[in-house]
Specification:
By secondary structure, the protein is an alpha+beta fold. It contains 10 helices and 13 strands. Helix 2 packs parallel to helix 3. The structure holds adenosine-5'-diphosphate and magnesium ion.
Length: 321
């Protein structure tokens, strides 16, 4: 049975491609890193716990991908260029086949975005993964939750509800077998890093949709001191989610299931026509689904039948679920 330091040496030491701003990576008491002068360092942490965020028999390669993807999604949401990651992992046993697969998933996504694994911690215990990612952004160009203004257009990237529908299928709640394209959205989300970088030209306000559209738009409204008006008919849906909503009239899948990791952002009124003209050249398709209104009106959603939904369903809350 390999020990802690064998695992570190075999699986973490040369896990990712080198970066010139890593002066000293895995192996010493600290990593030594050289952030660029004049830029801000953005830092974000997310934890995935077995039994809460994934089932204990999860495919380890998918988990390695997802652990990094959800963290990179937070950098994407603020228009940050990813650079470094630290991985704190707790393992029930020194299962090398499991760890090798986990690191295959982790490293291929890290290499795709030029992220270097620079340190971490390895302990024994119930399976959980905590990742910290760091990246760089120019002070005046970051995207923030508190920057939406009345009359801004509200946009989302990609499609919403795919991961939520996959989860329901996986849990056997629906009378339908898993659909591979939806399952891939749940297991291996694509962080919208490139889109986040492109958006810095047009907007100041974004969030990633990790808790559900209603909840995450709610965070933006609360932080920005504004309300929002949405048209549900405009929300971009994949074919399976559209068919599900048409058959059930259950809007909770696109409105309140998390885990899609798309970006929600607002474009100021003055920028909207320029933005619309350039939208086709963005890394990910984007759709305008409503607009920001004055505070006090909350989030109002116009249903396709013309009725008004006053309060969108809340997203996932770990302490209330
Ligand atoms: P210390 O006991 O001084 O905190 P450790 O023995 O925990 O150091 O770790 C030794 C080296 O291995 C450190 O550089 C640490 O950052 C790195 N390391 C440990 N676990 C991981 C991991 N899961 N991923 C990346 N690096 C790790
Ligand atoms: Mg340690």
């Amino acid at each position: 049975m390999p020990g802690e330091f064998d695992l570190i040496h075999r699986y973490f030491e040369a896990a990712t491609a080198a970066r010139t701003d890593v002066v000293l990576g895995v192996g010493d008491d600290c990593a030594l890193l050289r952030p660029p002068a004049e830029r801000l360092l953005a830092v974000s942490t997310d934890t995935l716990v077995s039994g809460h965020h994934f089932s204990p028999d999860v495919n380890p390669e998918a988990l390695g991908h997802k652990a990094l993807a959800v963290n990179l999604s937070d950098l994407a949401a603020m228009g940050v260029e990813p650079a470094w990651a630290s991985l704190a992992i707790t393992l029930p046993s020194a299962d090398e086949a499991w760890l090798a697969a986990f690191m295959r998933g982790f490293s291929s996504l890290a290499d795709a975005f030029g992220v270097a694994l620079v340190g971490g911690d390895t302990t024994a215990g119930p399976l959980s993964v905590t990742l910290t990612v760091q990246g760089f952004v120019d002070a005046v160009r970051s995207l923030r939750r508190d920057a939406a203004c009345p009359d801004d257009g509200i946009y989302v990237s990609g499609t919403l509800g795919d991961a939520g529908l996959a989860l329901r299928m996986q849990q056997g709640v629906l009378d339908s077998p898993p659909v591979p394209e939806l399952q891939a959205r749940l297991d291996r989300p694509t962080p919208r890093v490139q889109l986040g970088l492109q958006l810095r030209e047009f907007c100041r306000c974004a969030i990633d949709v990790s808790d559900g559209l209603g909840a995450d738009l709610g965070h933006v409204c609360e932080r920005s001191g504004v309300g929002a008006r949405l048209e549900l008919a405009k929300i971009p849906l994949s074919n399976p989610v559209r068919a599900y909503v048409q058959a059930t009239a259950d809007w909770s899948v696109p409105l309140s299931s998390g885990d899609d990791y798309e970006l929600l952002f607002t474009v100021p009124a003055a920028q909207r026509s320029v933005f619309a003209g350039l939208a086709a050249g963005l890394a990910t398709p984007v759709t305008c689904i409503g607009e920001v209104v004055e505070a006090g009106q909350g989030i109002q959603a116009l249903a396709p039948d013309g009725s008004l939904i006053e309060e969108l369903e809340k997203g996932y809350d770990h302490f209330r679920a």
